[in-house]
Fold this protein.
Amino acid sequence: MKLDRKMRECEHDFTLVLTGITPETTGVEDALFNAKCDDATLAFRMNRPVLSFSRTAGSLKAAILIAINDVRRANFGADVLRVDYCNLVTQADIARKIARTRQLVHLYMTGKRGPGGFPGPACELSNGVWLWYWCEVAYWLLQNDMIKAEVLQNADDVEAINCTLEMQYKVKNNPALTQEIEESI
């Protein structure tokens, strides 16, 4: 049975955004290595620490959750802020994700092609540049046989992980505010 589970495992690439360390923080690489993060590369993007993984696991969700726990176990002063993955996408992002043209995606959005019912935008980024929730779009795409179920599952999993991580960060940094909002909702 264990062999069967190993056969289903595959490599997942993802990046964790960290907080709490700077390029001057010492001992980070050794702590990560000792905490089983030898499959990750540390970098700084605009002074923000990021840890890029290529981790083998049965699912993307499992790979990310194990990596988060490994980073926390390393205990070098950093914590995981989020997975470097944005649930907000443009029309061009959607087209790229499904290997279609932006024009065809626009036709889906306006109901001129496809079954109709394309999800509405989440917000307007700037004049006429709209953003959609990728999870909502992926659900519509799956319903209309344009993506595999795994694509939606991965999007849902990463969105849930990010929501949880961001809430943990907010609770840690402003517990009074989060308690007030939680009691008011």
